[in-house]
Every structure is written in structure tokens, then in C-alpha cells.
Give the backbone structure.
Amino acid sequence: MHSLLKFNSKEYYKLNKERLNNNNKKYYRELRKEIIELLGRKCKRCGINDQRVLTIDHIFGGGKKEFDNSESSWKYYKYIKEIINNQKLDPPFQLLCHNCNHIKRIEIDSQIRKIRKRLKDGD
Ligand SMILES: [Zn+2]
């Protein structure tokens, strides 16, 4: 009985894989749109509002790690949306365009290098 159920759910998944994936993609796109709305619809730094280049940036870092731990991208977006709704006044996320996101990363890297150097030099 048990193995039969398992087989059936596997078969079901196989048969419906494409449909399920499409549902996930649709849900992902809707969630992304909602999060962009919640975060003000434009890049926090340069103000560009072209949604194709906007990324959801974790202000204090750690986004990549959290994303890796998340089973799928829509689940991660769902999690982000919940956090934003719980911390409306000061959400730990912001919208950045790809360029500003890249610049932010370079700035953080250079700050880290400076701090490491200072610690090494014993200041
Ligand atoms: Zn920007």
C-alpha cells in the first residue's frame, strides 16, 4: 500500500511536472511583482524603475546564503514578502538595479579589505 502510494505520487509528479513548474513560475513572477511594489518600485540608489533590471537586495547581506537554503525561488520570495510585511517601517530589503547591486558589492569588498588590513597592522 505504502509503496504504491509512493509510486503514484512519483508518477503524478512526472506527469504534472511541466504544469507544476509553470504554476511555480507564475507564482514566482507574481510574488516578485508584489515585493517590488512593497519596496517602492525603483532602485534605491539611482532611481531606475525598469523592473527587468531590479533586484531584491538584502541590506545586511546574507541573501545568497538564505537563497541557497531555500528549496525554490518562489519559497524564498514568499519568505521575503512575509518579512517585509512584518517590518513595514524598516524592512531589511531594498531594491537595487544590477549595476548598483554590483557597485555595492565592490564597496563592501573594499571595506572588508580595509578592515582586514587595519586589524593586520594592529591599529
Ligand atoms: Zn541603480
Q: What stands out?
A: The beta strands are 54-58, 93-97.
